[in-house]
Design goal:
By secondary structure, this protein is α/β, with parallel strands linked by helices. Helix content is 15%, strand content 29%. The chain contains 2 helices and 13 strands. Helix 1 links the parallel strand 1 and strand 2. The longest helix has 15 residues.
Length: 163
């Protein structure tokens, strides 16, 4: 958990007692936007009919396996996805893509892409582009422009391979 702001000593004691891994980022110069993740909250037992309806809805939703954008992501547009994402276009300066799963971008990235999945496939980062893979900033110098590359984690370090 990343905490931005003043952290009370009692909060620190509670988090440590509960075994929560956290970091105070209020002194960091880089402020990361975060992908919103659902928190599971225990609910009371529901009537069987309501439960069946919810299960039917979740089955329909779970059929979606991938989110595809067959267009550029425009400046000012912000996409938050919990499904794997494929973009067959560029990500313009000022556009943001946050994804909890894997991402593939086949155009130049001039905006911000934050991927928390197993991999990211990209074709290069433009002058204004930034890529954050599982919390680690990918340096533009480590990539080859206009060459398809796959970024993964190999143990504790980022691994970049040309495809």
């Amino acid at each position: 958990m990343l905490i931005d702001g003043e952290v009370d000593e009692q909060v620190v004691i509670f988090l440590e007692h509960e075994g929560v891994c956290f970091k105070d980022i209020s002194n960091c110069s880089l402020k990361l936007s975060s992908v919103k993740k659902d928190v599971e909250i225990p609910v009371q037992e529901e009537e069987p009919k309501e439960q069946e309806q919810k299960e039917a809805i979740s089955k329909v939703i779970s059929k979606d396996k991938l989110k595809v954008f067959d267009r550029p992501i425009r400046s000012g547009e912000e996409i938050n996805e919990d499904l794997p994402v494929v973009v067959f276009g560029r990500i313009n300066s000022g556009a943001k893509l946050f994804c909890t799963q894997s991402v593939s971008v086949y155009g130049t990235i001039d905006g911000l892409v934050q991927c928390d999945g197993d991999y990211i496939v990209l074709n290069g980062i433009g002058n204004h582009g930034n890529v954050i893979f599982n919390g680690e900033i990918i340096e533009k110098e480590s990539l080859v422009q206009d060459k398809l590359q796959k970024i993964t984690y190999n143990g504790s370090k980022v691994d970049i391979k040309e495809i």
